[in-house]
Amino acid sequence: MADSTFDIVSKVDKMEADNAVNQARKEIEQRYDFKGVGASVEWSGEKILLKASSEERVKAVLDVVQSKFIKRGITLKSLDAGEPYASGKEFRIEIALKQGIDQKAAKEIGKIIREQGPKTVKSQIQGDELRVSSKSRDDLQEVIRILKAADLEVDLQFVNFR
Prior knowledge:
Blueprint (H helix, E strand, L loop, with lengths): L3 E6 L4 H17 L9 E5 L2 E6 L2 H17 L7 E3 L3 E3 L2 E8 L5 H14 L5 E5 L2 E6 L2 H13 L7 E3 L3
Helix pairs in contact: 1-2
């Protein structure tokens, strides 16, 4: 019998992220405490750019954006928010969306699978994702359970379960 496999990936649904940004933009335009402070949220290439007149206001805009991402089902592990920095008369924060699993995190996941997972399970790094294989589907489900319980700095999705 052929091995059963699944892939471990870390991806953010671009449409859900776009919807979260649009919802945050609408809320910021409506809220009274953001009137007259130049608060805005917009896409800047692949990053989200937050602007406001003071450091506290831009951090408040960040809170609104993060809450919208959570409501859309995107974890904060998928966001890489920078520190506020001054740009002319306004403060800005850039947020990058984390796509893919970097080599360091992939090695850490592989180590967890080797140490805590069943001995029949094998994992291999393929670019920015991991392929996990085993003869037993139950062993693969055990690996998924272990990885969900592990406290990792990346958001994991399990796809292509065969």
